[in-house]
Automatic annotation (TrEMBL):
Record's compositionally biased regions (Basic and acidic residues): 338-349
Source organism, top-level taxon: Eukaryota
Region: Disordered, residue numbers: 319-349
InterPro entries for the chain: UPF0658_Golgi
Protein name: Uncharacterized protein
Stretches of the chain forming a coiled coil according to its record: none
GO CC field: Golgi apparatus
Keyword terms, alphabetized: Membrane, Transmembrane, Transmembrane helix
Transmembrane spans: 12-35, 55-75, 87-109, 141-164, 185-209, 221-242, 249-270, 282-307
Species the sequence originates in: Penicillium salamii
Length: 349
């Protein structure tokens, strides 16, 4: 794994790491003095018969998705810094803001679900421990999770802005100032961002749909679970084929993602025709994944048309010539040319 070197890189990774650790700690840990766990509190409050209703998986799944988001964004930040991918850095900012919104949604979902379970128990008499209420115990931790996600977003945005200024110059030098080359390379970077971000939303939908709606019914449950490793393999192969300009491989990946689009459309239709717990959250993930998958297919097609036009040389120039050379300031002059004028600074993204 790549290790940050500059101050701005350390700020971005440090903020995301802190946010991930504190989110995990608080999602797992809760009050009275933050000495217990949200998940442990939930498990101690419900009874074994809770598995009779899909809502039993709703809270653990939402906790896991938020934790996964924090860890995944940290991994993407390290990847973006290693590849000097400005588009991915901006996507991380947007994703972090979405995590903040998701944390707020989780707060309301947790409140309504626990109160409904306590009051009506969905018609089952022994789903939870009716001698105590869960929500007052976990409410403080849920509030802190929202605050951490919001503060993390506020701090990451300016750090990413300063990194963008550094990386734009490095990328501009790599494409030798060519506008056409910059646009081709921009589509390549957008493809990498889309395929990586889409993986999170696709997995989030698959897990929610399979555990809440399918709920262990027949062979559909097993087949849907197989989509998780298949999605990971498809993402990794897609990145490899595009980076190494393998046209036939990218065509196969495009076919796979067209299948994903068809799958998501059918699932959305099914969810619209049925009423189930957590339907709104599943539809949100499905629609976002559907849009990202369609955009990924378009960018993959554009990348194929741009193969054999210098992507490999740009990547080697951008990453293989030493990081210190990538951060030359625009007014820095080579020692061998003391009379040359400073080049104008342009940005790629």
């Amino acid at each position: 794994m790549y290790r940050p070197t500059t101050k701005n890189e350390w700020w971005v990774c440090g903020v995301l790491l802190t946010q991930a650790i504190m989110t995990i700690a608080l999602e797992v840990q809760v009050t009275r003095l933050f000495l217990k766990y949200i998940f442990v509190e939930w498990q101690s409050w419900v009874t074994p018969t809770i598995i009779q209703v899909p809502v039993s998986y709703l809270i653990p799944i939402n906790l896991a998705i938020l934790i996964f988001a924090g860890v995944y964004m940290l991994v993407l930040a390290l990847d973006a810094i290693h590849a000097k991918n400005n588009i991915l850095l901006f996507a991380i900012c947007i994703s972090n803001a979405c995590s903040f919104a998701y944390a707020i949604m989780q707060y309301h979902l947790m409140e309504t679900t626990t109160i409904r379970l306590y009051e009506s128990r969905f018609g089952y008499p022994t789903l939870v421990d009716t001698t105590r209420k869960l929500w007052p115990s976990i409410q403080p931790a849920e509030i802190v999770v929202c605050i951490i996600a919001g503060l993390g977003t506020l701090v990451v945005v300016p750090c990413v802005y300063f990194l963008h200024r550094e990386y734009s110059w490095a990328i501009y030098k790599s494409v030798n100032g060519s506008r056409k080359t910059r646009m081709r390379y921009l589509f390549y970077e957008i493809f990498l961002v889309l395929i990586k971000v889409n993986f999170y939303f696709l997995i989030g939908f698959i897990v929610q749909y399979n555990l809440i709606y399918v709920h262990f019914r027949g062979i559909e449950y097993t087949l849907t679970m197989c989509l998780i490793p298949a999605s990971l393999i498809c993402m990794l192969l897609g990145i490899y084929f595009v980076q190494h300009e393998r046209t036939w491989g990218v065509v196969v990946i495009i076919a796979c993602y067209l299948g994903v689009i068809a799958y998501l459309i059918t699932r959305v239709i099914i969810l619209f025709e049925n009423s189930t717990v957590g339907k709104d959250m599943m539809l949100l993930f499905a629609f976002v994944s559907l849009m990202l998958t369609a955009a990924t297919v378009v960018c993959a097609i554009v990348c194929i048309t741009n193969f054999d036009r210098g992507f490999k040389m740009i990547n080697r120039s951008k990453n293989g010539s030493g990081r210190s050379s990538s951060y030359l300031q625009p007014n820095s002059l080579p020692l061998s040319h003391p009379d040359s004028r400073p080049p104008s600074r342009l940005t790629l993204d």
